[in-house]
Each structure stands twice: as structure tokens, then as C-alpha cells.
């Protein structure tokens, strides 16, 4: 009995030590977050128009510590875990706005079938996990309004929150500080379909951005208006160049070009319209003249049919009507005198 009591006492003591270490790690992380936020607010207050100060870049260490904390809270969502079921987790109050989820899968099934839909991610078949483990956990991150804090990009503006997809070993769901597993898409890439993109005015060029585990950004082209692709793990978002939003073309540049083009089209349209009108007027004049001529010919034919027909005789080079006879014979004047 004494041996059993001693073993129970040792187990309780080790569990208490593990809980204390876990709380200490979380407190250290929260202290770093508070210190960085305070320094950010002080720089914002002390900045003057004569000296533009940019917010301090969040170190990769802080982002990596966030990954560890989110992994811990995502694993806590597995109360009665089932394979292939998505479990939404909760974050501490000082990280309100961040969303997490966890999905446990078999490595073989994951490589053979992929995942049709996991939040905004679509994982095709053929994804290889390195190093190989029997079961994996895919942890989903949506950093929300914390995106620019943990992954700052000077000179760029986020149109969507930063989304993360990391893989862990699922052999011990109560473990903390679990290292990430690497995965590579061998055939088709993973697709990330972002929702509720921030609207932007003007013809700005949006880009996909991918952050590796060290926080190094890499820009890529969009697959479609709201879709990015990747072959690796990490964090992803859609950004635009801030200068294209904050410094649009001066007034009158594009409008003047538009006005010039509209003037050209107006002139061309006026010329074409005038030519068409002239053609129509000419056709109308020809038609009227032909109508008048046909009417005259018809009138002359009518009169010819009503009058007496005369024979025609040629006089020189001209033909003229000739009467065959007259009713009274001409007499000389001297005949009347006699």
C-alpha cells in the first residue's frame, strides 16, 4: 500500500509540475505580447510628421510562440476526438479575434484522399507528410485583426486575414510545444479560397503572400480573384501595395484621357452622321426629280392621246408634224373683186 501511495503521490506531483510549467510558458507569452503592444502604441504616440516612424516589425520568435500557444489550445478541443471531424477551439481572452480549429486524420488516408474542404483550405490527394507518422492533426489559424501585428508587411495592406495551416503528430494530444510536421503537395497544389475580401478602388494589383515558419514573406500571383495556391505549410493572405491605394492617380489624368477619347469619338460620329445625312438628301433629291420627270411624261402622253394624230415629215434634219389637208381652199384677193 505504501508503494502504491508513493506512486500516486509522484504522479500527482509530476502532473502539477507539468501544469505549472504550462502556465509559466503561457504567462511569458502573454507578457511578450503586452510588451510589444505597448511599444507599438508608444511609437504611434511619439511619432511626428517630421519623422515618419513605422511600427516595429514583429519578430519571427513571437509568431512562433503564437503557433505553439494556438497548437496547445487547438489540441484542447479534442475532448472525445473522432478522425475526420473538424473541432473548433477557443483562444485565451487576450487573443480575442483569432479563430482556431483542429482536424485529426490518418496519414495514409490524408495522402490518398486529401481533404475536400477544411475551412478555406482545399487539400488535394498526393500530399506527403515528413517525417512520416501514423496520425496527424491539421491545425487551422485565422488571425483576424491580429494579422498585421504578427505578420507585418510595411508598404502593403491586407485585404484578407492571415490564414495558417500547420501539421502536428497526433500520437499525444495532451502534449505541448509539439514540433510541426512538414508536408509537400506532390501533384496539385493546395487552394486557399478567401472570403469577405476588403474592397479596394481603382485597378490595383492584388497578390498572394506566403509566410514560412521563419516569417519570411514570398509573393505569388492569384489563381483567381480570391484564391491562392501553395505546395507547403505556412500562413497565407492577399495583399495590395499601399501606395496604389493611398496615392491614386491625380485628378484629371485618367478623366482627361477619357474626355479626349470621348471627343474623338464624338468627332468621328459627327463626320459619319453628316456623311450619311448628305447621302440621304442626295437620294431624296434624285427621287423627287425622277418623280417630276415621270409626271411630265405621263401628262404629255395623256394630251397626245386626246388630240388629233398628225403625220410626221422630215424637214431637213428635223421631223415635224404635217397636216394632210385643210377644210377651205385658199383664194386670191382679186377673185373676190371680180
Description:
By secondary structure, this protein is an alpha+beta fold. It is built from 7 helices and 16 strands. Strands 1, 2, 5, 6, 7, 8, 9, 11, 12 and 14 form a 10-stranded antiparallel beta sheet that branches. A 4-stranded antiparallel beta sheet has the order 3-4-10-13, with no helix packed on it. Helix 1 (2-46) crosses helix 2 (60-75). Residues 1-14, 33-57 and 248-255 have low confidence and may be disordered.
Q: Major beta sheet, specifics?
A: 10 strands, antiparallel
Radius of gyration using CA atoms only = 47 Å
Number of strands: 16
CATH architecture assignment of the largest domain: Sandwich
Shape: rod-shaped
Per DSSP, the total helix count is 7
How many separate domains? 3
Distance between the termini: 194 Å
Secondary structural class: alpha+beta
Strand content: 15-25%
Q: State the helical fraction.
A: 40-55%
Might you state the CATH topology name of the largest domain?
A: Chondroitinase Ac, Chain A, domain 3
Q: Secondary-structure element sequence? A: HHEEHEEEEHEEEEEEEEHHEEH
Mean pLDDT: 79
What is the highest CATH level, the class of the largest domain?
A: Mainly Beta
Uncertain stretches of 5 or more adjacent residues = 1-14, 33-57, 248-255
